[in-house]
Records
---
Amino acid sequence: MTNLPVGELVAAARAARERAYAPYSRFRVGAALLTDGGDVVTAANVENASYGLGICAERAAVVAAVAAGYRSFEAIAVAGGGEAPVTPCGACRQVLREFPAALDLEVVCAGEAGDQVLTTTLRALLPESFGPGAFQAEGPGAFQAEGPGAFHSEGPGAFQAQRAGASEAEGPGALQAQQPGVLQAEGPDALGRPPGDPS
Ligand code: THU
């Protein structure tokens, strides 16, 4: 592994674990991502009173790393509670799958202390996976990051909201919810009020 012993990456994940916000599960997890240039980005799980909105340490690390300008990773260490190694959940495996050479990513799983470490690869953890290469089959299209398509900010589509007047402009749509329209169409609401009655 480039420039960094596994032990150091595990130590970074364990240190990040101390900063977890996990008041609901009380299961704290830390992650440390090693970039291809040898830098390390750490994160921890962050839970929420709306339980389903919590984010795992590994995904938080990916988000932090990408926001800091990194997109290529060599390894990730994960440290959970207890002595037994904690492996990334399925959602995190898929998110890690996104980046260049992702399947070669080394995944180092550890507990909060002790010497038990499981070292594997994303290829082993996510066989027959789906990834960005799938979109190349059809040629240039909507999901090309830099080209024209459904998500291109200057083309037609749902993401024109930031243009002046876009939310008032061109026909019914989700951004017109405050005008009479689809959201008021179908009879009394949960309080028994008729359509259009804001009282
Ligand atoms: N969790 C992680 O952060 N990473 C994992 O690999 C497994 C689970 C978090 C999510 C949740 O906040 C808590 O652990 C219990 O599932």
---
Amino acid sequence: MEHRLEIETMGKIKVVGPQKAYGEITISGSKNSALPILAATLLTDEEIILHNIPNLADVNTMIEILENAGKKVSWEESSLIIKAHSNINSVLPYGPVRRMRASFNVLGPLTIRNGYAKVALPGGCSIGVRPVNFHLEGLKKLGIESKIEHGFTHSKYTRTPEKVHVSLPFPSVGATEHLITTAVLLENTETIITNCAQEPEIVDLCNFLISMGARIEGHGTSNIKIYGVEKLYGTEYKIIPDRIEAGTYAILGAVLGEKIILNNVIEDHIFSLLDIFEKMGVNYKMEKNTLTIEGISRLELSPVDVETATFPGFPTDLQPQLMALLSLIPGRSSITENVFKTRFNHVDELNRMGAKIFVEGNTAIITGVTKLSGAPLEATDLRASAALLIASLIADGETIINNVDHIFRGYEKLFEKLEKMNLKIEYSE
Ligand code: EPZ
């Protein structure tokens, strides 16, 4: 099976709507768990086996980075076997890190392993400015000094503090993961991180690190304590399912109706979405790890006012997809984006299809319309691509989504899964 997905030229998707969805699929492993866990494998030279890893462009970018750092990585179905190939190399090429922000989290582990590191500064992306100041300020408290030169972060491990307290100005997912993955190998250092992120992916990362021998308490709460150890060991670990993939298909089901069944879904990870479904009157059933969405006419659904927030609040990564649904619900809905305040690139594209959405500050006001019509669209990022795909499947007529390859960064086996739900789309380079 070909695993490497390179995104050179941006492809496009052609969709003719409206279509109905009915069928059953299984949700893949979580992208946003796999990436920080893969970065953390740099903390040991022993063999690590990871299960339920999604075959995504971003995962392959992280594998490329690990191989540059001296790892040997091989796939077996949806498992990865990671071994030390040579001494850890902590000077990484510019390209892959620049390409994917999550890879910045290798900086701390590499600096601890080698005493220094040189890693590209990650770029922003179309969902908003994405500085790394919380990361660098926290690493500094852990004894790692950094300076930015020629687009690279040069870091040096200068001292081993005994006790460290980092209070994050905002519960950043990336900064929380980066600081935990660094503090675990600071022997005899006690680190407390307050106001940290509580996302399920943070808990998954900590459970993985604990299986390597790390000592961590409080993961899943806003205060995490880490007792640094001298050495971490090889392990075998299965990552959690992707709650954002599950939420995306659940919203698709609510828009396209009939009946879809999603297996491998953890209810606690998506209850903020189920809460919204309750308020709207979406007909869903959650049994064990299976979510069933049975369509009812959208005219019977109610508008809602939603705010995005850090977990356990409603995730910003489902905001564009929910907006596609709300654009077809009679009445006035609103979505306030509190995590990436300018994350509204999908609005103009949905309006191009006949939606009625306008943005005031960081709130989108949505007046429901009875139908959308197909149009030529531009996708700008991963979740916006998913939202435009959902809208194009319900719209009248033909839609072309250009620049759509972003979608392969976060949705594994997309065509296969859509086919299993009797949905037809055409992809071309
Ligand atoms: C993670 O990004 C996810 N990515 C994002 O998912 C997700 O949107 C985001 O968390 C929020 O849930 C991965 O897990 C790989 P943050 P991250 O640090 O860690 C500000 C997707 O579609 N901030 O929690 O980069 C920042 O600008 C992706 O799968 C600083 O100001 O997000 C933002 O406003 C997109 N300084 C807020 O915090 C910092 O040093 C939250 O960002 C760090 C963050």
---
Amino acid sequence: MHAETYYPTVLRVGEVDREGERREIKKERLRKMEYSWVRALVLVICMFPLLVDARTRHYKFNVVMRNMTRLCSTKPIVTVNGEFPGPTLYAREGDNVLVKVVNHVKYNVTIHWHGVRQLRTGWYDGPAYVTQCPIQPGQNFVYNFTLTGQRGTLLWHAHILWLRVTVHGAIVILPKLRVPYPFPAPHKELVVILGEWWKSDTEAVINQAMQAGLPPNISDCHTINGHPGPLSTCASSSQDGYKLQVESGKTYMLRIINAALNEELFFKVAGHKLTVVEVDAIYTKPFTTDTILITPGQTTNVLLPADQGAGRYLVTASPFMDSPIAVDNMTATATLHYANTVSASAALTTTKPPPLNATPVASSFIDSLRSLNSKQYPAKVPLKVDHSLLFTVGVGVNPCPTCVNGSRVVADVNNVSFVMPPTAILQAHYYNISGVFTDDFPGNPPFTFNYTGSGPKNLQTMNGTRVYRLPYNATVQLILQDTGIIAPENHPIHLHGFNFFAVGRGLGNFNPKTSPNKFNLVDPIERNTIGVPSGGWTAIRFVADNPGVWFLHCHLEVHTTWGLKMAFLVDNGKGPNESLILPPKDLPAC
Ligand code: C2O
């Protein structure tokens, strides 16, 4: 019933790393050889027809340091298996995935499988101090989960400190065997990961900022599959960066992932149209656009018909920011490269990325997204609401005598800046350990004010490790309301353990009397990460059908660090099928 595929070369890489600490140079050479091996093998495995219905897939993630040069400067970074971006995890819907994570670095590590539902398996979700204690240096932990009812692109990333800046990769969930895509099958599929790069050590960047109470330095560039691209100041030639190789007349599917820490991005391909077919591992009604908007934590599959002649075409990833907040304004580039094009001589067709503050481009993209809502892939929008919640999301200012201005910038949900507990909340819940968290998270703002106006006089937040408790199967409507405190800002909010339906969106303050009239309860987009518009609100609905402790936070890492996070605690239902599984034996201790 279960055929097992082992990834022997991946294992061998790990062993090389472990013993290789003595001779750096030899290790580096060996690594290069091994990686090309891994790549070849992964390719073979992916093309290999999968003959059984549900299988177990084994991966080994060795978390290791590696020197990496970008923008003419070299620094050591934390990686999985020495790769940046990290390895792609391939599986089919219904598969069981086992990933052994071995921590060879000096930092505590956890890995989150962003968007994987983790039905009843919350122990393997990954956010440090929420579902698990971190994997300490020299330790390991096997993540074990099943991909139930999901197919498409997701991502994995470190979920502790700022390690996800380089510790991230794609999750590709193919449909079940013999189940086609609900769109014409592409000739080829390519993973395109957008990222952000700092020349300095990112842990130092955030630590200094936290000490000073000030916002951290912005990044030095954006990247496409790890590279700033041919137009970067340090590029050695117009051949630098990632190349998407295509053949004229064929259609390609790009699995685009925003793995940047702090920035929402626009993505464009010069001279080509993109047809969106899936976001966050949910099929959409196909629509065609020349620019996509993607927030950190979101994934978007597009079909790209290579319908131009020979030549090279510029691919761009550029930031979107429609509030007065500093961002890294560098555009990452790559090239789409037609076969039969003589590389060096071929002219490059360029494109201009949208302006930084192109709100209309962003809004028109968001408004075009609809669930496919077909017979086979219905949109099961909850129509009745058991828990109607309104959470304000934004920043605040708290006193800090040791900080530069005597105060520090913080962030909050309903005026609570979430404080990470010293031990994992899920364990505290399961073993009834008191004193770790309280279940009194406010379902509504503790005091009302004109949220998107000039704000209250007192900008101070409360600290707390508070969760909102839900009975099994409760239906939830959650209004995420941006505040204008200091400045309104777009917040990409991510909910662990669930997909939700984005039923409504608007500018200004949510009005409980009139705003719901415009809700889409028929085919709203279903996803796991949603942008709350700057100075506006977003309404989401979900069913609490997954027992456990589930993190909700802004996927701008700086805001998570500042406290824009909370958790839902969903109680067990009746019987084992509605209950959290037993904790794994190798669950790390704090
Ligand atoms: Cu992708 Cu809690 O994160």
---
Amino acid sequence: MADNSENKSGSGDCGIVIRDDWPGYSLDLFTYPQHYSEDLECVYIPHGVIMDRTERLARNIMDDLGDHDIVVLCVLKGGYQFCADLVERIKTLNRNSSKTLPMSVDFIRLKSYLNDQSTEDLHIIGAENLSVLSGKNVLIVEVIVDTGKTMKTLLNHVEGFRPKMIKVAGLLVKRVPNGPGCLPDYVGFEIPNRFVVGYALDYNEYFRDLNHICVISESGKQKYKV
Ligand code: IMP
């Protein structure tokens, strides 16, 4: 499926690198909601693999940040599932390891996509007053970094509240021309430049109710286009 031989780039670790020629798994090998049977091309990253990788990211975060207090800042809507699963695994480590990572959780909502295209206007919708972040160690949790514009804008916004430290966890980073402006500190997977859905990633609000990360089919794009 992937290798991690080209594992370092910039400040962050690319995580599991999924190559451009990865075809994904046939849908028939997995279960998924019947209502999406015409709308998907393949299972790109199975849910179980996402869970296993998230468990390791939680351990890396604990190793680096353990014994500090952190505020987890979940980037909605797409980040809710990854954030919940990551927090759950950090909680497990809190119960079972000698280190401890006290956490509080806050939310911010951003929107920049229409259909499968990034738009210039990025809206910060929720929790605009993040003064609780002042002087705190902040872990931003985002499900996907594509061009990196969203992350850049968000980092500028959060820096304005003068936190002590900011780290970013991103489940997916896309390989796009010129690369994203900034790489997350913790990366689950580096993926080709394809539009993916599921695991709370949407296409015009559809597919959040799908466990695996999948590639949307052309007919799916047409069906849910706005
Ligand atoms: P960026 O600003 O180009 O990095 O875009 C990041 C945002 O675009 C994410 O927070 C997602 O909301 C959305 N996005 C980018 N690529 C995808 C995708 O493949 N599937 C679903 N949403 C995506």
